[in-house]
Known about the structure:
DNA-binding
Amino acid sequence: MTTQIFFALSDPHRQEILLRLARGGPQTTLTLLKGIGATRQGATRHLSILEEAGLVKSEKRGREIIREFNPEAVTLAQQWFADLEHAWDSRLDRLRQQYEQE
Amino acid sequence: MTTQIFFALSDPHRQEILLRLARGGPQTTLTLLKGIGATRQGATRHLSILEEAGLVKSEKRGREIIREFNPEAVTLAQQWFADLEHAWDSRLDRLRQQYEQE
DNA sequence: CTAATATGCAACTGATATGTTGCATATCTC
DNA sequence: GAGATATGCAACATATCAGTTGCATATTAG
C-alpha cells in the first residue's frame, strides 16, 4: 500500500501537482496544467496515479472533474517512516543495554 | 533529491531490505539475501538504488561490503511530508479567517 | 599456491513508465 | 442546434526497471 504512495511521489511532476493541490485547494485538470510543463494527457496520467495511491480524491461536477488533496494517505506514509525509525532506535537501545551489562 | 528517496521506497523488496538493515544492523549482501526472495544480483541492484538515494551507506572491508542503514535520509523525506501538511494546514487557516470575517 | 568466498560487470529479456498524438464523448453556453 | 470546453480512450515510441545468466576479479582460508 505504501509502495504505491512512494511511487506516486517519486516523480517531480507529481510532487509539484500535489503541492499545488494542497496549497491551492480543489482544482480542475486544466487549472493545474498552467504552471506545470506538461501536456493535458500527461497531467491526467499523473493525477490518476496520485489518485490510485490515495493522495488525491476526485469528484465529477458537470463536464469537469475537481481534484482534491487527500491528507489521509500522507499519514500512512508517515507511519511507515515511524516504524522504520522505531526499528532503528530499538536496535540501538538493545546495543546500549548489552554494553552496560559488561 | 526526495524523488530518489521515494523511488527507492516504491519497491517492496527495497522496503524489506531497508527494514532488515534498520532492525539487524550492518550486514553484507549475502546475509541480507537470506530471507528475501531475490537473486544476489537483484539484491545488489536494489542496494545500490537504496545507496544512491542516501538511505544506505556502505563500507568495503576486505572482500566484503558492509551495508548500513542511514537514518539521515529519512528526515529529508519526513521534511517533505511536513512541508506538504503545512501547505495544507495554512490553506485551511486562510479559509477559516475569511469565513470569520463575514 | 589452491579452494572457496564475496563481489563486479555486461548482456539480455520481459514488463512498466513517460510522453505524444489523433480521435471520440459529454457538457455547457449562446 | 452549433460551437466551445473538459475530458476519455487508444495507439505508439522511447526510456527505464527488474530479474536472470555467464564470466571476471579480488580477497581470504587451508
